[in-house]
Backbone:
């Protein structure tokens, strides 16, 4: 365990509170106009999965656990969970939906992800920032709308809905941000 300042906590960190280990889901530093700055943290208790809210003054010291972070290859998903393989020793790790969450829609065969593990259990996953997907459903392209700043809804081949520029049609490959599902650009491949 290492003591760190509360304002340095980030998603995926593991902290000890009340004798139990928690993984940080979100951390936000709040600086009110009057009074002390505070760090609000949403956490999940590792032992039983219960979500907990932590609140510290930004200058308080918090116990942070040492977490192993390695690159894994995504293999497949089934009833057990999501299967990943460590590329150096071919060791496999099964990760549940509670850790992967909404990001499971972006998992693709062979994708390289970073898994944070604590004592052999996966506690957080980090996908590549961008993925390339294909548009399977959207409104037809309207001639003359290429310079418009408006967006239209589209469905991607992984089932996720996003907003794309009006000149993008069905069958077009686009780059999407995995954090929020937003359109970045047309794929260059």
Residues:
């Amino acid at each position: 365990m290492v003591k760190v300042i509360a304002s340095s906590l980030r998603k995926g960190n593991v902290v000890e509170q009340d004798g139990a280990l928690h993984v940080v889901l979100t951390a936000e530093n709040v600086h009110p106009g009057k009074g002390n700055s505070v760090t609000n943290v949403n956490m999940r208790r590792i032992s039983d999965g219960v979500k907990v809210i932590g609140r510290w003054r930004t200058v308080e010291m918090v116990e942070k656990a040492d977490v192993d972070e390695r690159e894994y290859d995504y293999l497949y998903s089934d009833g057990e969970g999501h299967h990943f393989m460590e590329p150096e020793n071919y060791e496999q790790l099964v990760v549940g939906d509670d850790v992967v969450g909404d990001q499971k829609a972006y998992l693709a065969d062979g994708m390289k992800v970073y898994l944070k593990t604590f004592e052999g259990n996966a506690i957080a996953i980090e996908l590549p920032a961008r993925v390339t997907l294909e548009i399977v459903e959207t409104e037809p392209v309207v001639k003359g709308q290429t310079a418009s700043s408006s967006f239209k809804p589209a469905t991607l081949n992984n089932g996720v809905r996003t907003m794309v520029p009006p000149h993008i049609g069905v069958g077009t490959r686009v780059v999407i941000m995995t954090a929020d599902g937003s359109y970045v650009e047309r794929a260059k491949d």
In short: The chain has a mean pLDDT of 87. DSSP finds one helix and 16 strands in the chain. Residues 24 and 106 are 22 Å apart (CA to CA).
